[in-house]
Amino acid sequence: xxxxTHIITGMTSLRTVVLILALTLVVYVxxxxxxxxxxxxxxxxxxxxxxxxxxxxxLGLGLVIAWLYIVLGRRRDPLKIFFFYLMLVAMVLLLxxxxxxxxxxxxxxxxxxxxxxHVDWIERIFNQxxxxxxxxxxxxxxxxxxxxxxxxxxxxxxxDRYTSxxxxxxxxxxxxxxxxxxxxxxxLNYVSAVKAFMAHPVIGSGAGGYxxxxxEYRRIPISEDGMAHIYPHNILxxxxxxxxxLGFVLVLCVLYLNLRxxxxxxxxxxxxxxxxxxxxCCIYIYGLCVAMTSLDVPKMVILWWxxxxxxxxxxxxxxxxx
Length: 322
What we know:
The chain is an all-alpha fold. The chain contains 15 helices and no strands.
C-alpha cells in the first residue's frame, strides 16, 4: 500500500506502473492458457498456475483490465482486437476455475466504472430508455448464449456452480447455516470466525489464531510446508476473529477512508484526461469484492495493489490531501 507512493512521482510513472501490471496480467492469462494440462484439483475446476481461487481472481482482473482498455481506448486502436481476444480467453479460463466470486466482482466493477465515469448516470438511464432496453436485451442474450455454450464445455460439477441457485448460494442456505458444524462449504469458515470473535471480542485470537477455533469443529490437514491453510475467507471476518474489535473497527475505518478517496476522485474526474484514475479505482473495487471471499489477508494482493494506487491518484488530484 505504501510502496507506490514512493516510486510513483507523476502521471507518467503512474501510467508506467499500471502498464507493467497490465502486461503482467497479459502474460499470466496466456501462460495459464498454455498450462491447461494441469489437472483441476477441486471437482474438475482448473487451477492454472496458482490455486483455483487465486487463479480465478487474477484471470478476472485480467478480464477487467482488457475490458477497460477496450472501453477507454481510442476508437480505431488496433490493439483493441488483441484485448478483445485477451478478454475472451480470460473469461473462458475464469469460468473453468469455477470462481464465482470473481465473476460477481467483474459485474460489480463494471457497474462501478459506469457510475464513476458518469455523474449524471441516473438521468442517462431515464433520458435514454432505448439504450437501456437494448443493453438489457443484449445482456440477457449474452447470458443465455453463454450458458448454452458452457454446458458443452465445462464439467458438470463446474457448470452447476453457475446455473444452480442452490449451488450458487449454497453457503447461505438455511440448513447450511443451521448445521454449519457439518458443512463442507464456506459456512463452516464464516460461522467459526464469528465464534472466534465472540470468544475473544476485545483483542482477538491473534494472527493465525483462527486455526485453533476451526480445529474445534473440523480436523485440519497439514500441507507439505507444515502449515494449516485455513482462513475465514473474508477480510472483515478475519480481522474480527484474529484482531478483535480494535482490528475490525480499524479495517472499517480504512475502507471508509478509501470510499472518501473514491468520491473525491470522482468529483475531480475528467473523461479521457484522467482515465488512469478510473482504472486504479476499478482495480481497488475488484480487489475489495474478491477480498470478501478470498484467502488469507496477505494473499489479498489485488486489494492492496488497488489501495496503493488509489492513494497515489489522490496525491496527484489534490495539492494537500489529508
